[in-house]
Request: fold
Amino acid sequence: MLLLRRLRYLFKMSLAVSLRRALLLLLSGAIFILTVLYWNQGVIKTQSYNEAQLRPHIQKDHSSILIPLEKSWTYKCDNDRCVRVNYHRNGANVKRVSFISCSMTCGDINIWPHPTSKSQVSSHTLRFSVEDLQLRLDTPHHDVRRRLKLAFDVLVRQLRQIQRLEYASPHAEAMASASEPSAKSTDAAESPLAGGLFSSTFGSHRSGDLDSLHVKLSVHESDELNFNLDNDESYELVTSLDHRRLIVHIRAKTFFGARHGLSTLQQLIWYDDEERLLRTYASSVVNDAPKFRYRGLMLDTSRHFFSVDAIKRTISAMGLAKLNRFHWHITDAQSFPYISRHYPELAEHGAYSDSETYSEQDVREVNEYAKIFGVQVLLEIDAPAHAGNGWDWGPKRGLGELSLCINQQPWSFYCGEPPCGQLNPKNNHTYLILQRLYEEFLQLTGPTDIFHLGGDEVNLDCWAQYFNDTDLRGLWCDFMLQSNARLKVANGNVAPKHVVVWSSALTNTKCLPNSQFVVQVWGGSTWQENYDLLDNGYNIIFSHVDAWYLDCGFGSWRATGEAACSPYRTWQNVYKHRPWERMRLDKKRRKQVLGGEACLWTEQVDEGQLDNRLWPRVAALAERLWSDPNDDHDFDIVPPEVFRRISVFRNRLVELGIKAEALFPKYCAQNPGECI
Amino acid sequence: MILKSIMHCYLPLLLCVAAVAAGSVPDDSSENSRTTTSKWLCDSTDLCLPEEDLLPENGQMQPKHRFESQLDCRLSCGKYGAIWPMPTGECSLSNDRVHFDPWKVRFNVVAPNEVTTQFLRETNRLFVSNLLKECTRNCTLVSSKEVLVKATVNDSSLVLNWSTDESYMMVVRTTDTVSFVDIKATTVYGARLAFETLSNLVTGSVSNGLLLVSSARIIDRPAYPHRGLLLDTSRNFLPLRYIRNTLDAMAASKLNVLHWHVVDTHSFPLEITRVPEMQRYGAYSNTQTYSHTDALNLVKYARLRGIRIILEIDGPSHAGNGWQWGPAAGLGNMSVCLNKTPWRSYCVQPPCGQLNPLNDHMFAVLKEILEDVAELGAPEETIHMGGDEVYIPCWNRTEEITNEMKARGYDLSEESFLRLWSQFHQRNVQAWDDINLRMYPSVRESKPVILWSSRLTDPETIEQLLPKERFIIQTWVSADNSLNRNLLQRGYRLLISTKDAWYLDHGFWGSTSYYNWRKVYDNALPLDPRKRQERQVLGGEVCMWSEYVDQNSLEARIWPRAGAAAERLWSNPKSSANLAQRRFYRYRERLIARGIHPDAVVPHWCVLHEGQCL
Reply:
């Protein structure tokens, strides 16, 4: 203060008017500086308490933050394992290596499911952008050509998504916080800046080490596009570099094999968040073919409705994991969402609401979409049990009771879970309706050598209320045979080669001919029926409740009774399950095993949790059925190498918009092998 | 020409109207949409049933009132209608409805000062935005009754802690021209809760607009002052948006504490302005962080929803990544056993890491962290200091520690380690007090801090190690454990997180099992001994540990189960989950309307057909 007064005094006393203005400016500047200094002093004071003197380094660090905030870690490969290292760029030009780039070049080939034959990738990798991709089709078959083009478009679309994700997510966060005035995120405010800076200089248009990436798809042998269990799904993928042109050559006997090759290629490409470009190997060789023919996933859309979008999303993920059968349990006793052309009454009476329905167009759309991913859609109308709501209009139309015990109480006397309902085995109209439904399904999904008739959990007490037959089980058997006969009619008088039914008391008898019937075994994996069915000559699809039921583990949904099948099956449970090994099947019996299927019953799932209930556990099944890796060394522990690959695959799913569940703390993903 | 275009435009519309008219003719062929055409009744057992399902031969009196839909029926079927959690005092709801337009609701706020008035204005805004989400169709009505809401608050303070009065009283009445809602509460938080209840008296109408229960009288107060949810953002990071969604759902459930387990051994996402190294060395990546401002804004966001955020800085165990820069900075090892393998020899869960209780630098850094935390919260807010799962063999196997202990005259017995551990907490509480004294001189009493139950809280020895005036113990033992009873007898205040009911992460790892909403609901808290004047069981928390959960499955794992705990903590009902299920299903659907993705609990059929899935 004294100083100020003195200055003013001097100024008044001795200076000319012309200089006054300049000095006034100077003075106000000085005052400002003094104020700032004074202010800062205060701030420092409030912070400086006893311990501050212990840490003199802090001031030093503040002035020169060496680590760019966005890059905390770099990774190096050490004994086939990526090790996380805090990233200091001490002036030297040490490039930061992103986790994914380390992981993809460290150890065995990192794709899911693991190829079944010898495969190799180079350690030399190249940067490129999705714009560099070019397709060369090498097939004489016109329809195959068309579909390969569609499959390739999917690849390009997904790679675009992968390359763009980095910019998309912080932006979305910024949008969310902008709309919420009381919560402004500072990191969101920073990110667009960083993103903008990088994208303008190294945006997706910047090419990397390549002028072009040619994807050559060769399919010569077969023009087969219809699904059957004998489809050759093998493929060979060879990458070679010619100057600045990378050629990926995928050779397969059929479309199906070539498509799997594209799925492999998609996983051989990753987004390097350091370079902000895609990366792939300079050379690679993959020879691959599945171990099992039937690799399925079942979704129940009756207990809860799932939108066509959700189903398509699921199928796209199935394609990435090389699964090939989508078993659509489209109706059950709870609801009948399918709008039949011949019998719209079924959905009118059985759908939860007008919007919770599937039109023929919806089914066709799902089917067309699935074909591109090499996934066959198999529609199941469960019968005779699990059919109630939607079947109650018979008497009004003069067709008699189509279904019995509908919504009858107390339910536990007449069915496995509420609401009850079981088709009337002595009403010809029931069979006629089934025949029409089969016909519609076959028209919508195309020719097939396999069809699912349901056939599980028949409650004989329900029928006993109506019929005096002494052999109610015989009635059940007759029902199955009758509906199978109707299926043949619906299929243009050609019986499908395989007809699937769920395992039940009926399949323990020999009433269904083993030449045609396939049994989907959903009982316990240690049950005797597993052996008996094989001994009786049936082909088998495994869906053991104790390993591959994905709905288990959420407690009982009813007020009474125990939880049906707790606990939850972890992805390790799914992965480790190898019934054909545990049962020590000989060569002949192994041949009867067509494959396996994971089941998602949806009493306790709706669309909000679909993705995380399925993934990454379905992926675990996919590798079990595609490559069936040996785990002789230890039956109970999943090898670290599997953790490493499934973690990368799970992240890939998330990048593609599948809300897959977390496998473990992110720390464990960033530090492979440390959490086992 | 014009005529033609009009025809063009209106022809489809006309056809459509004709079709609707044809459809509404009561003939056999169109009774498909029974949910929309039939009337609903509330039967004597409080089930909402469509008229045709209610058989007259039951010998019961037919209820008189017809409702337009199941949702409409649910609003007043049963004593508590669709209110979740159920009120603890008087509750009467009429069967009549007011058809109203949410855009036209008018508010009158009577509050003692500017800040409380402002708070209530914000509450009104949030209330309206929640109402709009209930609209099944267009919200706007051409003509509707006016709804006037008056909220009166006496207390001028915005303090939110365990002694905040959250009670409220609400009366709804309707005259020929207008509906009045009269809300009276002591604090703004009580008033906010009344608005939450009011939103439970509203549902979408099958035509445009909303329906409101036309007259109601509700007196309500919570059973427990601490109704919490723990969120772990260290094992897996959760973007802010998901935390905000969680806070929204908590507000809808009348939960009032978010226990933010923000850091752990795995990662340190929180920015500490005084010690930037913590985040720099501890975060998974730069995008997986919370800045100081983020946290401040989150605290504000929560408060507007009547929620406290209590931050937890866990220690001495569960602290590793983020602390590894000590040696390079000349501060020595602040955390020991850091990321050491094989982890089973050094900790209970990988990665390992436990603070070095003999390193003064560590205490200095921790104090600066505490200072940052104190800055984030309101003046009255306290802190959770963790204190669980200390793995003594880690310290015992670290030469640096054993040598120093010997030098300071400790032997290496278990008692010594426990003493060391309790001194760790005492020293931090001292630091916490210093900070608060300086930062918030207006807060007179020193605030108690929260610790997890552990070896240290063994009832036999706790009184020597942790004074009950300063430490509130959050127990995480199973329901049959005697720890709660023993600690209560010794006069400790408790928060209950029953391990075998309220650990939402269970059922997906090891031999743990999943607790469905019924189990969560039925988990009764231990009784207060009532010897003292003061309440000892402050409440409880459901815990969402995030080892196997990230943003992709977070919401489904927490909701609607946390809502079941919310009713336990708010109403502490004597009845079991069975009696609550229909209200609970309605509550779940309300969450969905508000943009949350809760897990499904029963087939949709069971929601539509009440009483059929027992």
In short: Confidence is low (pLDDT under 50) at residues 1-36 of chain B. The first strand of chain B starts at residue 40 and ends at 42. Chain B touches chain A through 93 residues (CB under 8 Å).
